[in-house]
């Protein structure tokens, strides 16, 4: 057994990651953290793991999960009064079995692989339409990175087209609670979460009266062994699907395109061989993952990387760090679209493995090669603007010229 390392250098590195400029390029800091120790303690007491194998262990360990809502009262007594926290902590993302199993089964019966694959021609068409509108210099985020995923998930859920654009800011404001939660963050995040919920409540009421072939109508009807989602559960699920459906994918596309433009040899290899797309998307997910970390609470005493942890400890797995672990990936800081045996941690693992992974992969596999094929002189036209967050990593703007 090894003791948890209390290192001033590690505390400083973790602190630097909480804000810019430290989080602009977190990877050298992750490397140093891994060298200090596989498990380091952050200033707030959380235990941080940075190796690939240990991140996998965190997502699968039977003694790790989420704080049950009755325990949340002790940690944050006012959580249920904050719409931003309530909407997150009552979602499938923060549930434990058997509640998690039940919610996940009900949503999986509607959000099926078949429903996703059926979208392929429609997504390809949306990509072509967006590319048609691009000329000269444009902001990639506004031209493709945001509109593609928001329209795909919007269409899937049955959210009318003119209503979709407003959610870019609303979801960005709400998901600030995935970072450090301060009173200022809640001041912005709460009204955003409340607006999203009101909107979805009105839409769901309409779908109850007049069902369509969209996912919200399917969730209204979803039934397993006589069990159904309550209204409350349905709204929380719809909000999570909608937000997770575009926020993260926008960043996969944005981070991916910046990585390719900064590695022209790799960009050219994909342009020459669009058949590489599936492997390329895995590598883009690994190289600069849109979700950099996830956290769990220990139910009981356990060990990770030979380090003892106690019941009640909060454990944070830095997926972005595990994705650059040299013990798992040869030459991890190199973008290599043909990398063999790739296994990015980017969609998490275990029972909470990302429900939208097939959809996100499909969108990126269609959009990235199409963009490269359409614009042979694609280039960065300025410095991309970094979004000031770490859990969700992405850009606010990416100036490109399409020639
Ligand atoms: C590149 C895009 C995406 C990334 C990087 C991503 C990442 C993740 C990660 C890391 C988790 C696990 C979190 C944890 O264990 O604490 C997760 C869960 C989840 N994701 Fe995604 N996601 C993406 C796209 C999507 C899309 C498109 C959807 C929906 C359409 C979606 C819906 C969900 C849901 C519902 C969960 C919760 C699953 C559960 O708790 O059982 N995600 N995602």
UniProtKB/TrEMBL annotation:
Entry keywords, A to Z: Heme, Iron, Metal-binding, Monooxygenase, Oxidoreductase
GO biological process: antibiotic biosynthetic process
SUPFAM superfamilies: Cytochrome P450
Pfam family, one: p450
Coiled-coil regions listed in the entry: none
InterPro entries the UniProt entry points to: Cyt_P450, Cyt_P450_B, Cyt_P450_CS, Cyt_P450_sf
GO molecular function, one term: monooxygenase activity
Residue stretches spanning the membrane: none
Family: Belongs to the cytochrome P450 family.
Name of this chain's protein: Cytochrome P450
Organism field: Actinoplanes digitatis
